[in-house]
């Protein structure tokens, strides 16, 4: 009987995270690579571009299970964090938040109003911005949670400027083919 209890305890413990991600007072997960922003998006994009990066805006909400997954799975992978920090300035916003954010046109919104105006319906929603002919432009959107392989490929899709010449689905197909040519099968689930 003791062996059964011991075995069940090990099984239950194996499903618990080894280390819980830090959470802020607003119920959103915190990451050391999130930018301390004044929520002036033109300034954030300018800062990103001056550093040779693009701007990433992540909308999350308290209690979101897929936000939790993004933090506890995707943001625990070294290859994702390395690519993210080398290529993006990251601003986190609360889907239901009331902090003031100034958008690219100079309009001041509460976070929740900005989310609605940008058509953000799911969390997490990750938006990536770059300057296109001197104009701030959304170049890619992840509407909801992407598993690590697709998350990393979306980062590479934007940082390599592949979005300028092909759609994301074609880009993914090309990456799958490259891996297949090397005899590799990516872990997509």
Automatic annotation (TrEMBL):
Start and end residues of each Thioredoxin-like fold domain: 48-153
InterPro entries in the record: SoxW, Thioredoxin-like_fold, Thioredoxin-like_sf
Transmembrane stretches, start-end: none
Pfam families: Thioredoxin_2
Descriptive protein name: Thioredoxin family protein
The species this protein was found in: Aliiroseovarius salicola
């Amino acid at each position: 009987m003791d062996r059964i209890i011991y075995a069940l305890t090990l099984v239950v413990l194996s499903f618990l995270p080894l280390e819980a991600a830090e959470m802020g007072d607003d119920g959103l997960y915190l990451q050391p690579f999130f930018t301390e922003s004044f929520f002036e998006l033109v300034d954030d994009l300018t800062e990103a571009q001056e550093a040779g990066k693009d701007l990433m805006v992540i909308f999350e909400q308290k209690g979101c299970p897929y936000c939790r997954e993004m933090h506890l799975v995707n943001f625990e992978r070294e290859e994702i964090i390395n690519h993210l920090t080398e290529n993006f300035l990251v601003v986190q916003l609360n889907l239901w938040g009331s902090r003031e954010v100034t958008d690219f046109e100079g309009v001041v919104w509460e976070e929740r109003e900005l989310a609605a105006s940008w058509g953000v319906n799911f969390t997490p929603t990750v938006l990536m911005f770059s300057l296109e002919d001197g104009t701030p432009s959304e170049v890619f959107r992840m509407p909801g949670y992407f598993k690590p392989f697709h998350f990393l490929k979306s980062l590479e899709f934007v940082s390599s400027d592949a979005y300028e010449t092909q759609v994301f689905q074609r880009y993914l197909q090309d990456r799958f083919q490259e891996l297949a040519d090397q005899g590799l099968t990516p872990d997509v689930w």
